UniProtKB/TrEMBL annotation:
NCBIfam families named among the record's database cross-references: casE_Cse3
SUPFAM superfamilies: CRISPR-associated protein
Gene3D superfamilies with a match to the protein in the record: Crispr-associated protein, domain 1, Crispr-associated protein, domain 2
Name this polypeptide is given: CRISPR-associated Cse3 family protein
Signal peptide (UniProt feature, chain positions): none
InterPro entries (UniProt xref): CRISPR-assoc_prot_Cse3 (IPR010179)
SMART domains cross-referenced by the UniProt entry: CRISPR_assoc (SM01101)
Domain of life: Bacteria
Amino acid sequence: MYLSRLTLSRKPDIAALGQLLEPEHDGRRMDAHHRLIWSAFAGNHDARRDFLWRDMGRGQFLVLSPREPRESALFEEIDTKPFEPDLRYGDRLQILLRANATRTVTDADGRKRHRDVVMEALHPVPKGQRAAVRMEVAQDAGRQWLAGQGARAGFEVDAATVSSYRVAEPRRNGPRFGIIDLQGAIKITDPEAFLSRVAQGFGRAKAFGCGLMLIRRG
């Protein structure tokens, strides 16, 4: 795996595309960034997305991928390094994670649906009162969701805080989904399972900048 830092080119001809590459609308910006990152992995048009990415702001992106990104006129020189953490049982890490946190349920007709954990937790609250308790509900739902992820991905949660929760609509009249920003500390219980899951990403909406867990020792 490779971890790359991509920085949007500051050249005048690229800067002139500013409103296309960096739309003001949050959802449209996610869609534009999704297409922008694809430009660094151009090739077979039938290829499936095999990378995770996160918008770091100010035209910078972090990308985790099984292949190195290609040079692109849209970006400055791409900084790429191997992603090969040496982890052991009991190691403690600080994490940042932006995710579309969902749980899968099976309806009576056998169809599987993915339910946003925060939206689901807010559902019993009267509509006029949801805004006031949204972050409180997101804190609890986010921590529970992360703990569930850890049980299947080789880590335990020592601490977790939800710094933001918002609903995005990347494409006009398309599906809307929640985005939760988590930060905290975890303990590794199965290094192999953990690194395998980091490579796959957490949650859904990975094409739109969700799912990449950033880690550091601490």
